């Protein structure tokens, strides 16, 4: 059989040799709930924030905060990212991942941000059947890192600018609802401290229980996600996995660990995962609103649940945990 691109089966054959048997093994600790039928996430029309009517603006702002506390996730309509830009981004993303594996892995493309599978996995349930470019936006203005993908540079700049505007709008509503000036986070988060993650989940020929992306919470303030029509994203709600039905007019927004810490647990960073699809490949794009590495993340109100930490310290801790134990521990490491 020709090797797939990326060679996930070949590269991880030992780990994935008997997926059915080993899934019952000791590291099998994530299936705490069964998938409910697809459940509609709170769907919020952002035109409410632009209304002349004060009451409408308030209703929309409260809906964003309530969803961020109760679900940690919500979907937004009239988000301002034009469909043509999403289509251009999708075309470039598909072209990028169709490149020969050797080029993706060794060309240093996009600031050498290419990753595939999970080198640190010690059992199938720590393995993600995916490939991704985790691009620091500080670097995307450098033409050198694009090779022949010069148009990709143009599209990514346009896309990340639009996403940055939306992320700032949403973060502004969330911090204002906690009694702070809407731009309080803007001095620690800016275009150059954020990340764009291009995900591709190839069709997966092994166990249907294989993860496209392992259960995790995001290590940022908030994430704005565009998923395609294939589906597979699930989030944890009341100890059950809830599938997120694809809605091409909507973008998905989820609270990250840093906003949970900053809000002193008012907003929840909720576990989510992607289940692999046996027949169809799937693409998604995630924009991560992140502060600079030296920014101190403290609680916006006392008494604080967590000790203060810098984003750099947090990322190092996550990577150390993933290296040491194969999975992310996250915020619980920083409880006072
Ligand atoms: C193996 C892992 C790396 C990751 C945490 C995880 O346990 C699973 C998801 C990964 C991810 C995806 C989105 C973000 O880029 C990230 C920082 C996060 O919060 O979850 C990465 C984590 C990482 O790269 O450390
Ligand atoms: O692809 C998806 O739907 C989710 C991706 C994700 O959770 C991430 O990149 O952090
Ligand atoms: Fe995520």
TrEMBL record:
GO MF entries: gibberellin 2-beta-dioxygenase activity; metal ion binding
Enzyme Commission code: 1.14.11.13
InterPro entries: DIOX_N, IPNS-like_FE2OG_OXY, IPNS-like_sf, Iron_ascorbate_oxido_reductase, Oxoglu/Fe-dep_dioxygenase_dom
Domain Fe2OG dioxygenase: residue ranges: 190-291
Annotated keywords: Dioxygenase, Iron, Metal-binding, Oxidoreductase
Biological process according to GO: gibberellin metabolic process
SUPFAM superfamilies registered for this protein in UniProt: Clavaminate synthase-like
Pfam families (UniProt xref): 2OG-FeII_Oxy, DIOX_N
Catalyzed reaction equations: gibberellin A1 + 2-oxoglutarate + O2 = gibberellin A8 + succinate + CO2
Domain of life from the UniProt record: Eukaryota
Family to which this protein belongs: Belongs to the iron/ascorbate-dependent oxidoreductase family. GA2OX subfamily.
Protein name per the record: gibberellin 2beta-dioxygenase
Native organism: Quillaja saponaria (Soap bark tree)
């Amino acid at each position: 059989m020709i090797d797939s691109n990326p060679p996930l089966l070949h590269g991880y054959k030992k780990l994935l040799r008997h997926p059915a048997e080993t899934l019952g093994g000791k590291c099998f600790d994530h299936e705490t709930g069964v998938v409910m039928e697809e459940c509609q996430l709170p769907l919020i029309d952002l035109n409410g924030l632009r209304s002349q009517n004060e009451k409408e603006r308030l209703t929309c702002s409260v809906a964003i905060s309530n969803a961020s506390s109760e679900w940690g996730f919500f979907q937004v309509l009239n988000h301002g990212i034009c469909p043509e830009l999403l289509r251009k981004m999708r075309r470039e993303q598909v072209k990028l991942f169709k490149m020969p594996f050797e080029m993706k892995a060794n060309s240093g493309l996009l600031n050498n941000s290419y990753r595939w599978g999970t080198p640190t996995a010690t059992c199938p349930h720590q393995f993600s059947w995916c490939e991704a470019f985790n691009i620091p936006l500080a670097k995307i203005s450098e033409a050198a890192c694009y090779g022949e993908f010069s148009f990709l540079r143009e599209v990514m700049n346009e896309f990340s600018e639009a996403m940055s505007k939306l992320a700032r709008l949403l973060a502004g509503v969330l911090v204002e609802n906690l009694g702070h000036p809407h731009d309080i986070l803007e001095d620690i988060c800016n275009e150059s401290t954020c990340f764009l993650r291009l995900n591709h989940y190839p069709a997966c020929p092994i166990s249907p229980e294989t993860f496209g992306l392992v259960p995790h919470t995001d290590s940022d303030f908030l994430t704005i996600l565009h998923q395609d029509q294939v589906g597979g994203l699930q989030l944890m709600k009341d100890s059950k996995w809830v599938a997120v039905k694809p809605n091409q007019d909507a973008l998905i927004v989820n609270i990250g660990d840093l906003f949970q810490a900053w809000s002193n647990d008012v907003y929840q960073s909720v576990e989510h995962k992607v289940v692999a699809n046996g027949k169809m490949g799937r693409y998604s794009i995630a924009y991560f609103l992140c502060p600079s590495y030296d920014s101190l993340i403290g609680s916006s109100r006392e008494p604080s649940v967590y000790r203060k930490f810098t984003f750099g310290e947090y990322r190092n801790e996550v990577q150390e945990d993933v290296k040491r134990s194969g999975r992310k521990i996250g915020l619980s490491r920083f409880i006072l």
